[in-house]
Specification:
With 385 residues, the protein is an alpha/beta fold. Helices cover 36% and strands 17% of the residues. Helix 2 crosses helix 3, helix 6 packs parallel to helix 7 and helix 11 packs parallel to helix 12. The structure holds S-adenosyl-L-homocysteine. S-adenosyl-L-homocysteine binds next to strand 10 and strand 12.
Length: 385
């Protein structure tokens, strides 16, 4: 028998501690015959000091460090490239096990630094205006791959340490993928984001955004109290069925009911849902559609985030005009809503909403090239017209 292949078969798989929630880390130490409180030490080394080498963990005995190095590892996904935008936005292209790439984006502003984290490689939902959906679905990210994006970002700013001078103050699960379709791993990762032994972010500064997977949203309220954003984009089912196909399964009324139930489960009665509405030229940007939205949302404590559509090759849609955007916004403000407009950031490095495609395999690249060719084709002229 070939001795090399024999060796790979018998080598035990080392467990990646980067992806263990506090509870699972405690269980891991128990399994080693150690005290559960070791979990807190490990979490601090990994997530607060950015250490991935057991030999540096000086408050653990030499024998425990050796044991850990035998059975475990701390392994973040590999950074392929880092792109800095003129406006301060930074994008990481990150290679996961298996070779596919995901993207993570950091968006600084005057009062916060927001990290936009991916939850899946590709996406199953295929919203008509989203580049991620166009690449199809590959797989769910592991907890280590999700929290690893935050670990990588924090490390790149060298800002492990006291809360005050953190570069990353907020996390939004608004990168590639539908977080509620990777429920357990996303919940574990968000728990690490909020754990005082890890990143210690407040529940108000961690936001999950969903296109509306209603049963999973109902389950979410039983296990966490992070901030919630829902991707609405249309105020009636006919249009939303076209833009967000999962609406055919869970129509608007059921999504709004579920969002309302999520709010009702929160201990604090002042919290609001963020309603995301991507404005697309001539599709969902008309004044009567703004009025319809204002009417629809009366039942839900919410604020509205308008996102001008970010074009990508082959989308077939155009960005909303500034006039239509302002008109739409004014109608909502007059109806009493708090409205924010998401300014396009990181456009020069293809880091804006809906532009994250990870370019993860040859098939994607072929599809991109094909769509680009379609884009470039001249319209067919019909003789005689
Ligand atoms: N699947 C989740 C998170 C992904 S995207 C969700 O649907 O909420 C985060 C936000 O960006 C969503 O509101 C999404 O609809 C929006 N978005 C996607 N593509 C976009 C594009 N090309 N331009 C503007 N916003 C886009």
């Amino acid at each position: 028998m070939d001795s090399d292949s024999d060796k790979t078969q018998t080598l035990p798989q080392r467990i990646n501690l980067l992806g263990l929630s506090a509870e699972k880390m405690a269980g891991f130490f128990e399994g080693l015959g150690e005290k559960r409180f070791r979990a807190n030490q490990l979490l601090k080394w990994i997530h607060q000091r950015g250490v991935d080498d057991f030999s540096l963990m000086t408050d653990l005995s030499r024998s425990l460090r050796d044991r850990l190095a035998e059975v475990a590892e701390i392994r973040a996904p590999e950074v392929v490239s880092v792109h800095d935008s003129a406006d301060g936005t930074r994008k990481w292209l990150i290679r996961t096990d298996g070779g596919e790439c995901i993207e993570t984006v950091y968006i600084p502003s005057a009062d916060r630094g927001t990290l936009c984290v991916s939850s899946q490689i590709g996406c199953k939902l295929d919203c008509s205006f989203c580049a991620t959906g166009k690449q199809g679905f590959n797989r769910n990210l592991s907890t280590a791959e999700i929290i690893g994006q935050l670990w990588i970002a924090v490390k790149s700013f060298r800002s492990f340490g006291p809360r005050e001078d953190r570069a990353v103050s907020n996390v939004v699960m608004m990168g590639m993928g539908e977080p509620l379709m990777n429920f357990d791993n996303v919940v574990d990762a968000m728990n690490l984001m909020m754990d005082d032994c890890a990143y210690g972010l407040s529940k108000r500064r961690v936001t999950l955004s969903t296109a509306g997977v209603v049963p999973a949203l109902d389950a979410l309220g039983d296990v966490t109290d992070v901030s919630l954003a829902i991707s609405l984009h249309a105020a009636n089912d006919a249009l939303r069925n076209e833009l967000v196909p999962i609406n055919r399964k869970y129509p608007i009324a059921s999504l709004l009911d579920s969002a309302r139930r999520y709010l009702d489960k929160l201990p604090d009665s002042h919290r609001k849902i963020t309603v995301e509405y991507t404005l697309i030229d001539q599709v969902n940007d008309r004044p009567e559609q703004a009025r319809e939205l204002a009417e629809l949302l009366k039942v839900l404590p919410c604020k509205i985030n308008l996102i001008p559509f970010n074009p990508f090759s082959g989308s077939g849609y155009r960005r909303v005009s500034n006039n239509a955007l302002n008109r739409f916004k004014d109608i909502l403000v007059e109806a009493g809503y708090t409205v924010t407009v998401r300014t396009t950031r990181g456009d020069d490095i293809a880091a804006a909403c809906g532009q994250l495609a990870g370019d993860f395999n040859d098939k994607t690249r072929r599809k991109e090239r094909y769509l680009r060719r379609l884009d470039e084709q001249q319209p067919v002229r019909i003789v005689g017209q």
